Amino acid sequence: MHRFFVKPENIIRDKEVIITGDDVQHITRSLRLKSGDQMIACDGKGTDYLVELIDLNQKEITCRIIESRKSRGEPDIEVTLFQGLPKSDKMDLITQKCTELGIRRIIPVETGRTIVKLNDKKAKRRVERWQKIAYEAAKQSQRGKIPSIGPILNLNEALEMIKKEKYDLFLVPWEEARGNSIRQVLKNWNVDKKAGLKRIAYMIGPEGGLEEKEVQTLIDLGAQPVTLGPRILRTETAGFVVLTVLMYEFLEMEDV
Amino acid sequence: MHRFFVKPENIIRDKEVIITGDDVQHITRSLRLKSGDQMIACDGKGTDYLVELIDLNQKEITCRIIESRKSRGEPDIEVTLFQGLPKSDKMDLITQKCTELGIRRIIPVETGRTIVKLNDKKAKRRVERWQKIAYEAAKQSQRGKIPSIGPILNLNEALEMIKKEKYDLFLVPWEEARGNSIRQVLKNWNVDKKAGLKRIAYMIGPEGGLEEKEVQTLIDLGAQPVTLGPRILRTETAGFVVLTVLMYEFLEMEDV
């Protein structure tokens, strides 16, 4: 069934949904849906509405809500990726793939080995671009929430955020984390303990990796250093590998 | 330490390694290594040689073997991906990421919903291109073997190959595989049983997915249908998600 995101204010007293903007053209012209057809409208906050199209014109579509339910595509764990800002268009790939896999938020971070320099104007445009990629990927993968991307922070700002947010678990993949595989760390919790972990975060370095003193600062804030095994993963690969492992271990890849 | 692949015939009686081709320029000009410096030469068959550079000229470099050891980047499980041939340059990404993650072989397959049509000449060029991507990714990620890519098969040819190869485990991610998550299937084996599984394969559909009758044919050949959870993954994402889960479950992401 076709699926669209709508702004929460376009959901009227749990009875009607109003579709506006580009989706109107898409629904009427490309998909040729008509009065009486059904589709899913998602509020982007984790609720799906099964609706029937009632009234269609060129500017908006009015739908009647048949039933509402929790979006099944939305994981219970809320995962934040702090991503060392990489070169070229790698953030596009990271954003798209991590959205498909269930990320909640991505914060690009300028670390010691970040090479890219973005002025304010360019940074703003990039974040808008990534947010759009996240929107499209959330729609395609049937997420119930649209991940938020940005703002770009420097390392000190990111550390302040980490202190403030008090994540239940914070992982730092690091080549030098001898004897501490991600599997061993995650197996340390039994199922009951895991049930208590909801807000999870991890930081991935840019192309050159994180500096040792950066990792040490994160460890001092409670982060757990982990290895991802003997193969050297590119920065854009490490992000979705950790996310896949988290979704797998926290039972978010089960049939529902 | 710098690392290069060499052809097995350039490893002389376990005593010397001869470097030829483009690597000579790279080693002498870009990296400026000199007589007495050490590096790793890998035979691409799973053995690494720690060598000392002895004699360098513009055409070849002679090295003395100090010691040999099993490449630590090479997983024990041998995983083959049968990938429904996708559009545009998605195979580039699949090849690069799956190589980093430890794939052994990728066979692109023309299934019922494959849209791309490649004539023989174009197909040959594409396979060469993917093989080159696999070589570069194997080098970068410190693999001990270079995955083999291709040839492109049609579905019947792929089915013949699957019959002949008799994989220990064959997975088919399929949206309709109700009640059978990849986690549940993999948890069905205890550690001892898992130790006996070495040759693993899986098939991913192209953009439109596999047809139901294609999945049924695979099931008749012993394949296990599995779901990857409630989020709809793109074809190029599913391949490395399954591979990540396999490497994780089969302890190939441990510290070594």
UniProtKB/TrEMBL annotation, chains A, B:
Domain named Ribosomal RNA small subunit methyltransferase E PUA-like: residues: 19-66
Main location group: cytoplasm
Segments forming a coiled coil: none
Lineage: Bacteria, Bacillati, Bacillota, Clostridia, Halanaerobiales
Protein name: Ribosomal RNA small subunit methyltransferase E
EC annotation from Swiss-Prot or TrEMBL: 2.1.1.193
Record organism: Anoxybacter fermentans
Any one GO BP annotation for this protein: rRNA base methylation
GO CC, any one term: cytoplasm
Protein localization: Cytoplasm
Enzyme class: transferase
